[in-house]
Amino acid sequence: MLHAGASDITTRFEYQASPRTSQLIAGEGKTLAHNYHPLPVVARRAKAQWVWDVEGKKYLDCLAAYSALNFGHQHPALVRALKRQLRTLSLTSRAVHNDQLGPFAEGLTHLVEQDMVLPMNTGAEAVETAIKIARAWGYRSKGVPANNATIIVADNNFHGRTLGIISFSSDPEARDDFGPYLPGFRSVPYGDAAAVEAAIDDTTVAVLVEPIQGEAGIVIPPASYLPAVREVTARHNVLLIADEIQSGLGRTGATLQVNNVGVHPDMVIMGKALGGGLLPVSAVAGRADVMGVIAPGQHGSTFGGNPLAAAVGKAVVELLQTGRMQANSKKLGVVMGQRLEQMRGLGVVGVRQEGLWAGVDIDPELATGREVAEALVGRGVLTKDTHGSTLRFAPPLMVKEADVHFAMDQLELALQDIQSFRAN
Ligand SMILES: *Cc1c(COP(=O)(O)O)cnc(C)c1O
């Protein structure tokens, strides 16, 4: 292992895409806004856990579109549901009823043990929806004075990119130059239930929290944290809102991560995998008396709850009802966690894992997360860095044990690639 400080690393390990791929990427950059820095791969086709690029090179997908592809690409049952609905009825708006939305709402409430659902499209919209419901509940049910409601959030949260949501982000990249910001939020350290209680006063309507912080690097709080926050919020008549957009729907080996810690929130926010990797589908599910504060005209969405989305969402619920995805995630997550632990010494300095979801800290003296992600592109594995030296692994939940070993073998080899690059 090299012992140079991070600042001594002058040459970056870079994956060299083929001339054709490089040309495609450069061309795209002329007309597409630069709000992402994608890996040098141009995908063309995918099936289950595999992705092929424009040159026919095959990759194991270990990112799964940030968990939007929990069931893999083109899951047959989900594609079938989408195609059937596409031929029948695609969009109505909520101006009339459609025959898909009711059954979807019924299935989803049953799956996540809540009373009512409000369907939206993207994750950020569902978070905004939950915030609006919590504020209205605070004024109409708890008796908070008008325009005074506060919501407690956690430092290093990620709940989306809208103006309301970035107002309580602690990430300067997400926030800077986008003000003025929306008031009414208090941020406290993640994983600290006493800090939550200390921040509660008569204006507090809700605590909004990720059961595991995904974008922050798969940060898993102490097991006692969410049960303690549940107890504190219940005692102070404050709503507990779990953002399960990334942690939910099988990712952590349970239907929801709150199930793993035995907590029942007042509202659960879902997105990403709820659309089965086919469409944007999100929803807020919650207690009847809380969801019930919203009356006709007070909130809505042209596309939210459309028949295509509802048909796919219902098929996703049916997949999860069998428990097979959750069980595979739990079982193979253990394998992945063990393999990662064995890589300490190869350049891995931290591992956080729950089900098939892992945050892997790379020794910053060896490489950035981006460099390892690029080395893995060369080795046929797609993953993504976050926050400097962290890499995340989140393969589709239907992978086989051999796939997990393949990804872990390639990670070992990628770390070795970078070690020998540094040595030369
Ligand atoms: C991705 C994500 C969101 C935002 O979802 P979008 O569909 O990108 O708007 C919100 N919360 C969490 C925890 C997420 O991971």
UniProtKB/TrEMBL annotation:
On whether Amino-acid biosynthesis is a keyword of this UniProt record, the answer is: yes
Judging by the UniProt lineage, the source's domain of life is Bacteria
- MF-aspect GO terms: identical protein binding; ornithine aminotransferase activity; pyridoxal phosphate binding
Which family, according to UniProt? Answer: Belongs to the class-III pyridoxal-phosphate-dependent aminotransferase family.
Name its co-factor(s): pyridoxal 5'-phosphate
PANTHER family given for it? AMINOTRANSFERASE CLASS III, ORNITHINE AMINOTRANSFERASE, MITOCHONDRIAL
Q: Does the keyword Transferase apply?
A: yes
Name a biological process GO annotation.
L-proline biosynthetic process
Q: Supply the Pfam families for this chain.
A: Aminotran_3
List the pathway annotation.
Amino-acid biosynthesis; L-proline biosynthesis; L-glutamate 5-semialdehyde from L-ornithine: step 1/1
The name under which this protein is listed is: ornithine aminotransferase
UniProt EC number: 2.6.1.13
The record's annotation in InterPro entries points to: Aminotrans_3 (IPR005814), Aminotrans_3_PPA_site (IPR049704), Class-III_PLP-dep_AT (IPR050103), Orn_aminotrans (IPR010164), PyrdxlP-dep_Trfase (IPR015424), PyrdxlP-dep_Trfase_major (IPR015421), PyrdxlP-dep_Trfase_small (IPR015422)
